[in-house]
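Running this now, will post back.
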Amino acid sequence: MTVTTERPGALPVKPARGRIKCIVWDLDNTLWNGVLLEDGDVTVRPAVVERIHELDRKGVLHSVASKNDRDAALAKLRELGLEEMFLHPQINWNAKSDSIKVIAKALNLGLDAFAFVDDQEFERAEVAHQVPEVTCVDILELDEALARPEFRPRFVTDESAQRRAMYQGQIARDELEQEFVGTSEEFLAGLGMTFTIAPARREDLQRAEELTVRTNQLNSTGRTYSYDELDALRESPDHLLLVASLTDKFGSYGKIGLALVEKGADSWRLCMMLMSCRVMSRGVGMVLLNHILRLAAGAGAAVRADFVETGRNRMMQITYAFAGFREVSRDGANVVLEADLDAVQPPPAYVKLEIAE
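Update: finished.
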């Protein structure tokens, strides 16, 4: 089978389908009926809770931005059995836009991946003005909003239902790191990380497509690939499609990396390289890249990589530079990089590398 991969052209545009990765909820007269500090007792809205659980199973995250007494609101969420559903809840008297920015930074997600649900027009207007990237939703129009493509992932993978747990594991890691006394390398060594690289299987492809859609910061071209495209490339003898996974003592990060190589006799072309932003702080950003360089060196082939400056993937550009790539040609935002195969680096000592056949 011969499969062609297009050279980068115009800056890629992410599809609207499944764009929302986190919904931030108000509490009073949104998640529950009534105002907690005025009414004392409030009653949860079952239809809203059902929607939260439904979206959680599809891999959409949830948080809170509420002007409220933090202890009282958290106690009520705990009483309702809902506290664990919300990551990095912001319950204070700050502007809702500021709370959303804090959540976005904590989750390492772009603001355009957020929706904000509130019953108050003033609060929605404040957020829309200060962070226009955020999608604002009136609680009275919730069902209509959730039916839109941006709230509906194309695929619901095995990892989707585990996404919140993965982020909760990251919160536990971050808390441990804040308390840790020692060097960064000592902390990472204590995590017991295992990085696994394997050829993509058909059962990996839904998650692989999802990675091309969801990953922005550590994405070499920003291009998305469909399930069918990835399946054809997976079976092509002229291409190598690799998937990377990461685990540590807190559990699995899931499938966090994807690479596509077009193999020539004398030169390999790295068409796509991406890593989930969830592993940016784990020091494993170059493990997959260096594995490909070692394979190419073993085959006696040079390596060139396509790179498209999207405005959001500066971290990937830095990763290529640290891996010894240099720019050899440019057409606007479209760049071709070439690897120095004498500069290939081994995996960090704090990571166990496993290569699956």
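The chain has twelve helices and 15 strands. More later if anyone needs it.
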